[in-house]
């Protein structure tokens, strides 16, 4: 699928939209080399992210969804510059950060933070919570004195619902939900503008998932945060996002306002994903379950034309040859599918 960012920017309110954007992603690609043999020669590439375009407005919560292996987490890490982009442009707060060297990313490291999926492995088991929170403050030269830094850490602890006296404890002394709160505290302590949350509740018990989601919701208002919220579960994203992008095999299939996407999904892949989401209210329209045939193709060898054509119930001959362009089919509703051309 070829996604055309020019189309995404069309409309009379373009200049206002430009001012509102905090993140703009243009044709972002991340390919990983596949090596084999004794000499470890490159035999091909895994096209984990293969040319995606989207933007996020300040204060917005943008959900990036798709099944496992669609490239959404790689996209998040590439945007954070934890991975080097293969191609494309990442503009954060008006600055092109896609080609900056690590030493120039200091400001970005403060202003964009990440919450990881697994609260067990993302925390250093040998460090107390206090030292994990103080370290970034020291690195960025904030709150010069140790007393001020400790007070800041205590304040963040209570803000995420943890007892400030727990600063001396180690990660193994906490439950899964508490550990994710520590991960959130670590992301928040530098008061970033934006947080990339990569499946932040999927490793947690269902009983604590909603507590953590509610916390993230409250923090967004209190800290004036923008979220890129990555998830495979559409029902989680539904309650959390203002707009949603649906990814399939490294490509963006559809981008729309949340209600529009749920009420009127246009891309056959989005329709299939949504058909599997249980109704949250008896009056909600019942969807007929759409079962996709076949497996997700390998991103090392994606299909020609529309990458979804091997599983699409509406496939046409030209879908197998020609990549569909992303186009605005309804106001602020974009889809990459030949059915709408
Ligand atoms: Fe892709 Fe064609 Fe199906 Fe649209 S109809 S999703 S272009 S295969």
UniProtKB/TrEMBL annotation:
Coiled-coil positions: none
CDD domains: ABC_NikE_OppD_transporters
Domain of life: Bacteria
Keywords: ATP-binding, Nucleotide-binding, Transport
GO biological process per UniProt: peptide transport; transmembrane transport
Domain ABC transporter: 23-274
GO molecular function, one term: ATP binding
NCBIfam families per the UniProt record, alphabetical: oligo_HPY, PRK11308.1
Name of the protein in its database record: Peptide/nickel transport system ATP-binding protein/oligopeptide transport system ATP-binding protein
